[in-house]
Amino acid sequence: xxxxxxxxxxxxxxxxxxxxxxxxxxxxxxxxxxxxxxxxxxxxxxxxxxxxxxxxxxxxxxxxxxxxxxxxxxxxxxxxxxxxxxxxxxxxxxxxxxxxxxxxxxxxxxxxxxxxxxxxxxxxxxxxxxxxxxxxxxxxxxxxxxxxxxxxxxxxxxxxxxxxxxxxxxxxxxxxxxxxxxxxxxxxxxxxxxxxxxxxxxxxxxxxxxxxxxxxxxxxxxxxxxxxxxxxxxxxxxxxxxxxxxxxxxxxxxxxxxxxxxxxxxxxxxxxxxxxxxxxxxxxxxxxxxxxxxxxxxxxxxxxxxxxxxxxxxxxxxxxxxxxxxxxxxxxxxxxxxxxxxxxxxxxx
Length: 349
Hints:
This protein is mainly alpha-helical. It is built from eleven helices and eight strands. The strands form four sheets. Strands 1-2 form a two-stranded antiparallel sheet. It is globular. Keywords: Actin-binding, ATP-binding, Motor protein, Myosin, Nucleotide-binding.
């Protein structure tokens, strides 16, 4: 007697598995090369193996975007791809009568969303969700979308409008290095991993010209400031101020060359994101003046010194913790940092 499994015999179950395996092999060995399948809805049968084999085949020929119906699948090339995000490519997708018939690209999604807004009599919000695991390319994709809209949604009709459009574009693009400096860090899987979520809102007028933008952040990994996993780093901004500060600023912020901080692991690693001047210039474009910037960097320097403070073990947990003798000696030398913060932010008596 055949064993029954969920109302079906084990024999029929085995037959269906054999049939599925044959279908998979027939599809994978078909005449059409897998890298030519630009939409995963064309995969038949749809299994984890067939989908991954198609994506692998496209990746091997430097094709990193693939449609999956109305969803776009992006693979991180982990290398520069010349021309893939150039202004010429943006204009090609923006000017195409049917951009969805061009090769799959993030600009297809951006252009379709933009046209959805333009085609409606009453403006209706459009949303693009960028999701994926660490290192998948979410930050880069968001940059590309913002650059695309900064280009296609700033069509000036006069010199005055042109200058306004330029300022908006510059501010939108300069929000990226600031957010990444203060919210991104080097992790085991990604040198520029976003440790927070963000909702970016681009605002258009009835002529579909960009008039402004707003960014909301959430779930910032604040614990990283005081605790970093082995082989990982703190937020980029701490390394930027230590590596990029001038001699005068080092004296002012008590950050002498060669100083070590327990909250600054792996300082010998040099990343592209360690450029302090890029962050400062971006902050200026966003309206954060030099004086305010200096106060911000003083606070950051103070946090680094605070991380070096060591407390002695206490037998009575109900009593205040006492500093170790080493911390007391270092505290006398750095007390000026604490008072400087108190004066600048009126947090002292």
